[in-house]
């Protein structure tokens, strides 16, 4: 069995992606809709890779900023909130897998599978993959529980803590001790202290450009503060992978494509205002998982906290490694952990429901399959109703 240190060195591979034939499988004559428990299911389809993938100013005239109304869903992800505020996904915050994937390609120039994996993770853990609907915030009557309530009486939306949303956020409190859904000025101000210490110099000579050193300082601070304050602190492999990936987004996705810099006004626009910055251009070429993963690896190497959680005494204890062959890289560890926290009841579905689940799990498998030990697809096997 490999040590955790050796697993951490392999993290970039978690975001590479060879082809997986399951994604293109349409071997059935099943109609595109069916009804279960009064819900009409919709067959989910993976969109094609965008053909126009160059530098582009975002938003365009068709996507102005409109502040959300009182019934619109918003949640812990600044990118999703920004997409909704500009209408790249429905402004009510209830979106399909295809809408989210297309928006990530159009607005942020994400490579297809890199963006689709994010949508798949959220849909499988906190959405309704039968009707192809996900709330980017909390509970909504527009996203009913799964047919037969096989995963409990509510879907929860991506703001619901545990399966995907988690602790040690840059701008949200841990769910056990505060508001994990809405932007927190105090946490952001603490992040800016790290920018002042480690950031690159902007045009005015001040430290106003986010860099890897700033992200390292922020994540060290997030983990240290939350582990001490939250007796239920958890930083499992799936959450670690997501938390470092979100940090890397600041440099690889939020940076202005014309300058390749993530300045204080740009990050403030996304984080605090949840709107695209003025005169902002998306990346000049598609942002792949490998690109973002390289930044993740730099952060992880400098913050050598193993996946784990607080025990009953408030002491942080490392999680055990998964069984072979899934213990051969950190990326495979995170994939195994995500599967272990996605409801296993999804596997025993039928018809369109099952086809949708298999498409989404196939996308997850494709992303993970570049990691040693991840050539085998892992179907969800986690508990329901949590």
UniProtKB/TrEMBL annotation:
Family matches, as InterPro entries: Chloroperoxidase (IPR000028), Chloroperoxidase-like_sf (IPR036851)
PANTHER family associated with the record: HEME HALOPEROXIDASE FAMILY PROFILE DOMAIN-CONTAINING PROTEIN, STERIGMATOCYSTIN BIOSYNTHESIS PEROXIDASE STCC-RELATED
Heme haloperoxidase family profile domain boundaries: 61-298
UniProt source species: Mycena alexandri
SUPFAM superfamilies: Cloroperoxidase
Family to which this protein belongs: Belongs to the chloroperoxidase family.
Protein name in UniProt: Chloroperoxidase
Cofactor names: heme b
Top-level taxonomic group: Eukaryota
Keywords: Heme, Iron, Metal-binding, Oxidoreductase, Peroxidase, Signal
Pfam families noted in UniProt: Peroxidase_2 (PF01328)
GO molecular function: metal ion binding; peroxidase activity
Signal sequence extent: 1-16
